[in-house]
Design brief:
Blueprint lengths: L6 H12 L4 E3 L4 E4 L11 E7 L5 E7 L6 H7 L25 H5 L10 E9 L5 E12 L2 E12 L2 E3 L13 H6 L5 E4 L3 H9 L3 E3 L20 E5 L4 H14 L5 E6 L9 H6 L13 E3 L1 H7 L1
Parallel strand pairs: 9-10, 9-11, 11-12
Antiparallel strand pairs: 1-2, 2-3, 3-4, 5-6, 6-7, 7-8, 12-13
Helix pairs in contact: 6-8
Length: 301
Amino acid sequence: MTSTAGRAFDIVRAAIESSGAATRPRGEHALMASCPLHPDNNPSLSVTWKPRNATTGVVLLHCFSCAAPAATIAAAFGLSMTDLFDDATHTSPRRATPTPAPTAALRPRPRQNHDWQRVKVYTYTTATGTPVQQVIREQCRCHGTTHKRFLQRYRVARHWVWRKPEGFTPVLYRAPALAAADADQWVWLTEGEKDADTAAALGRLSTTNAQGAQSFPPALAAPFTDRNVAIIIDRDPAGYQRALTLHDLLHERARRCVLLLPAITAAKADLTDHVDAGLWKPTPVFGGLIQATRDELRVGR
């Protein structure tokens, strides 16, 4: 018996069409589309529905040009990985999930189509200035709310690719400035490139790592050895946890290691919010930021 593509293929196709991407049919349950991650006049994104069992299937996404992960491609169309499965409750083949009632299965899921606009590209280089990675910040304002997302791509020879190369070595943001600075200068370690650029514009030696609060590779700790390090904290649980993790990693390695909060107390406030609120004080070393303790951050979590 020939399988019939289910809800996932219809959802993905509708999202692609609503994005304005060029498409062309490729068989009964497949099509080619322009990849949303790069200029693509000759559609290189393969969209194919494959059966998983007798009743459900999954949509496979593969760009022959950039080979980006399916999750990155899906997100660029405003989709989640769940949208690629006919069974909307799918999470992992290792964990069973309840089967929804027939009426719920037939009810269309509400969708919010985003018009993502690229607003900033942050380039990471080696200490000698060779580009190795970019973080691309995109924003969409819909229904009165501003949404943001971050995409990452990597330098391989003369090309940027979306899939992380095997054996990729991460680097710190603004690495050349860090390498050239005097060892006595305070290093401001921020959460994200925006705040690192804000600090640099104020004359501070600043850096960060890709993926913000999510991770800090231990391999990046070496440049902070015997330096004065100011860890700049975002006012949210993820920011507090990041600061605690960084302090544990760096305080024995660094000459001094302090934890600094923005003086503005609004939820999610960061260094840029502190500056925009007029709270920056150019004379003190820490610009009017508030020094915090580990115990205070633990309570904040």
